[in-house]
Amino acid sequence: MDTNTLLRSLPKVDELLKREDVAALDATHGRPLTLEALREALDATRAAVRAGEIVEVSADAIAADAVAWLALKARRSLRRVINATGIVVHTNLGRSPLAETAIEAVAEVARGYSTLEYDVPSGQRGSRHVHVEDLICRLTGAEAAMAVNNNASAVLLGLAALARRKEAIVSRGQLVEIGGSFRIPDIMRESGAKMVEIGTTNKTHLRDYKNAITSRTGLMLKVHTSNYRVVGFTEEVSLEDLVALGAEHGVPVFEDQGSGVLIDLARFGLPGEPTIGAAVAAGADLVSASGDKLLGGPQAGILAGKRDVIAKLKKHPLARAVRLDKMTLAALEVTLRLYLDERRLFAEVPTLRMLTMTQAKLERRARRLADAIVSACGEAFDVVTAADTSRAGGGALPMKDIPTTVVALAPHRGSATSLEERLRLGEPAVIARIKDDRLLLDPRTLREDEDPEVASALARAARA
Ligand SMILES: *Cc1c(COP(=O)(O)O)cnc(C)c1O
Fold first, then answer.
1. Whose C-alpha lies nearest to ligand 1, atom 7?
2. Low-confidence residues in the chain, pLDDT < 70
3. Ligand 1 binding pocket includes 224 (Cβ within 6 Å)
4. 439 - beta bridge partners?
5. pLDDT digit string (tens) for 361-388?
6. Domains of the chain: residue spans and CATH
7. Where are the alpha helices (DSSP H) in 75-216?
């Protein structure tokens, strides 16, 4: 058949709509998207005819194309993935998974009305801060507290409220960039504070701070350099010394703690990141941290500090712009409540559970995952378990590799790289690491009920 005859034989949209498979599309996705899918499929077929790629027009094939196109279009963009990387607080994969009880609280307040800003005893308007303030105070020893959208907005709010049109002193060793978009100099500029850099990259002395204090000084900022370390000849001023200097000159001290550690993790062989409470105890006027890093809660910025400072922050116009919504507040309240009972905390908050998983448990999990893979995939891969390292991630505890046991796969056909890609493009996507031509799956970040899913994803990938 020549090209024109083929083009004339293309089915009409109306005819296609009468087909059973297309009618099913219409019922699920509605008329506008179904029509778009059919036009896309017809256009693609027309182009293929003109290019001489097909010699026969098939309504079945066009309908199948429309179904495939719409399946892709209708797929949710923000969707679940399986994290087999062993990076616990994986910023690109959504940082901390929430505790089940936190998820239930989110669903409850999302479904109906809530006490978000309603004081039940008086029947009057209440404050959204009450849901987490006492909990943060109790867990950090602070006089007052609040929570905002994330730590970046917490720092922005703190700087704007305490140092707008004033000078904020910060060490050159702490002018950090975190996650590619949070940069201390940029946040400073946006807050309206004038940054006064002191010291050098590796060394900053107390006298550098002292010499920089003027009548225009609004605050001294200390940034916890959680995503890198300066090693060698280094010197930083302790928070205690800064607080003493600040008290002498009436200058508040703001510590950006970052990782949101509320309890001492050194007990579990993790490096002793300073806790928010330690910064409060050292006398910091204001401390900020993320809610979704090591704290294990939802995206949020925690602000803990002196009563008058927090009062100023709550009244600042930016506070409204960076406030938390009810779903996040619900998740944060429940997560913080879990800290009141450490047994529940380590059992129920996934980030802490994963970080403190024992070597014995990881080994057992790896062996079980390896067995599941072998029974699902047969001889497709060479499967072994091996010692490797997980990471805390999320710009927290970055230099610390945490020992783990991984499942390492070498495909008998094709490369580990193409296997990684097929897993990533599958549904659900499985995100894994590659090392020395092997695909590594770290059980630390896998839920036990995800093991069979990983095994079937591998079986699909092996067949593809
Ligand atoms: C992670 C981090 C931030 C940014 O926090 P977000 O919650 O991602 O906005 C700021 N400062 C420090 C020290 C951090 O570790």
1. 151
2. 179-180, 226-229, 271, 395-399
3. yes
4. 409, 434
5. 999 999 999 999 999 999 999 999 999 9
6. 3-74 (no CATH), 81-90+355-463 (3.90.1150.180), 100-348 (3.40.640.10)
7. 100-111, 130-140, 151-163, 184-191, 206-212
